[in-house]
Every structure is written in structure tokens, then in C-alpha cells.
Predict the structure.
Amino acid sequence: MIRLIDDNDPKAFSLLKQLYPHSGNAFIIGITGSPGVGKSTLIDALIFEFRKRDRKIAVIAVDPTSPFSGGAILGDRLRMQRHAADEKVFIRSMASRGQKGGLSRATKDATIVLSAMGYEIIIIETVGAGQAEFDIASVAHSTGIVTIPGTGDGIQAVKAGILEIGDIFIVNKSDRPDAESSVLELKMMLSMRNFNTPGDRFEICPQTPKWAPIVVKTIAQNGTGVKELADTFLSHFDFMKKNTILDFKKKELERIYFNSLLKDLALEKIFLFMKESNDFKEALNKIESGSMDPITAAENVVNIMMARKKLRKT
Ligand SMILES: Nc1nc2c(ncn2[C@@H]2O[C@H](COP(=O)(O)OP(=O)(O)OP(=O)(O)O)[C@@H](O)[C@H]2O)c(=O)[nH]1
Ligand SMILES: [Mg+2]
């Protein structure tokens, strides 16, 4: 199924429809951060921790940046290799670039499949955060941002708005110098986080308690701090469940998914329809003859179409 999704195969659609009613129970965790901060190593250690708690766990490693991502993806798989024989662990990379709606939708589709298969925890690894093609917060229930000490990553994070989308902040490679000051710096910046930011958009009413972002220090390579990290993710999940935030968040994510599906389907169908119309051909002629600019021409075609639709209704 995930291969069909990755290949953008139309067969995936009808299968997804059948699986959808059986999905929705998984806890979806997004792990993001700059290249090489140790996301895959950390996820490998997290799998270990969640398996100790007997959770069935799936990982999707997404690589939205490099077009020929064999290297990075192999690296991701390699770092999680020790779980290959565990039938309650599933690890898959996704690199579909032809996917309509970008990787967010492909990943969302994959979480439906995995959730229907009974995976209780689904971790999505992605490089960077919030870029146009992949907004991790539009798929995950809980978002972990990985940074490393002494890179000035904290400062960059503020600029990119990353501070706002994170629920849990991880200072990995804390075997390096300056780990403690990085933790303090992050905590300080988080204490100034504006509560009207997108990360807090799930505020349901003023009485709803707010999750205060937590900073966890880890050494992914030897597992230091990873138990605490696993506990923190689970307690965030419990917090959201207890305060009805999870239901609210799930609805919001469904809305986002619905919107992106709608855009994809509309684009596909309406665009094809428009291209076959005489208005399209006329507009194209006008552009080619230089009598109309492409912007006006595009507006005109859309307006004519909309006007026709209205006429037909009345
Ligand atoms: N010193 C130290 N090195 C680490 C730690 N965690 C990971 N590394 C190393 O950092 C390198 C990158 O680790 P990855 O897990 O591949 O990092 P990543 O963020 O998944 O990388 P991309 O997927 O390419 O963005 C590897 O050589 C790891 O062994 C750590 O806690 N301390
Ligand atoms: Mg990786």
C-alpha cells in the first residue's frame, strides 16, 4: 500500500477509503531538525524504548530535500537496522516527489495505512520543519525538534518559526561541550514563546490547560536521556487526551487533509476540464499573439468558467 502511495498510483485511493474507518488510533510523532543532528539515531533508540513498553511502532523517514536521496535514506534505514527482525517494528522511507499535494499528503496517507494495521506509535522523521512542501505539524500529534549544542541552532530556530511548532525540544549530542548552556538558552527562548503562535493554535478555550514545551537532553548514540524522552512523548499524548486537545487536534488535521485532497482533486479535474474548453484555446491564442498577458488570460478563463457555473445553477 505504501509503495502505491509513494508511486502515486490511483489504486491507492480506493484502498485508502477502505482502510480509513480502521485508522485513527495511533499516536503520531514528528521528529524534525537540521541534517545530521542525529534524528535517525535518536529514533532508533526511541524504538528500543517504546518496544520495552510493548508498543507496536512504525517509522516513516521522509526526505523532501534531495532529489536522489538514496544516500540519506539508506543512512536512515541503516541506523535503525537492529530492529529489522522485530515484527512489531516497521520502518519505511518515502521519497515521492511526484506526489500531488506534496509529501505531507503522501505521509498522511501512509499513517492511515499504518494506523489501520494496528501500529500504536508512528514516528515521522523529516529534515527541517515547516517548509512549503512538508509541514510536519500538519501530520503529527506531537512534534519533537532536534538540535545540537553549540551550533547557534537555537537562534536559527527562532527565525524559522521552529520554536513555535515544537512540543518537545531535544538537545542531542549532549556529550559535546556547551550542552547545558544550549538547554538553558532554549528554555529561555521557550519561556518567551508567544502563546498565540501556531503551535498553540489548538487552544480550545481559555480554560484549556496549555502544554508547556519541554526540553530534553540526549546522547542518542548510547541512549542517554532517551527513556525520559519516550516518557515525555507519552505524557504529552496523555495530556492531550485528558484535556480533549487530542480530539480537537485530530479534527484540525483532518480538515488540513481534506483541504489538500480537495485541492488535488479539484486541480486535476477542473484543470483538465478547463484545458479542453474553447475559452482556454482562445486565451492561449491571445497570449501567443501578444494581445493579452498570461495573468489576465488566466483570470479570464477562471472567471468565465465560474460565471457559466452560476448561470447553469439559476
Ligand atoms: N557525538 C554524538 N554523535 C551522535 C549522536 N547522535 C548521533 N550522532 C552521530 O551523528 C551522525 C548523524 O546521525 P543521524 O542519526 O544520521 O542524523 P540525522 O539527523 O538522521 O541525519 P539526516 O537524516 O541525514 O538529516 C551519525 O554519525 C551519528 O552517529 C550523539 O548523541 N552524540
Ligand atoms: Mg536521518
Remarks:
- DSSP finds twelve helices and seven strands in the chain.
- The chain has two domains: 2-260, 277-313.
- Residues 35-41, 72, 75-76, 79, 127, 172-173, 175, 219-221 surround guanosine-5'-triphosphate (ligand 1) (CB under 6 Å).
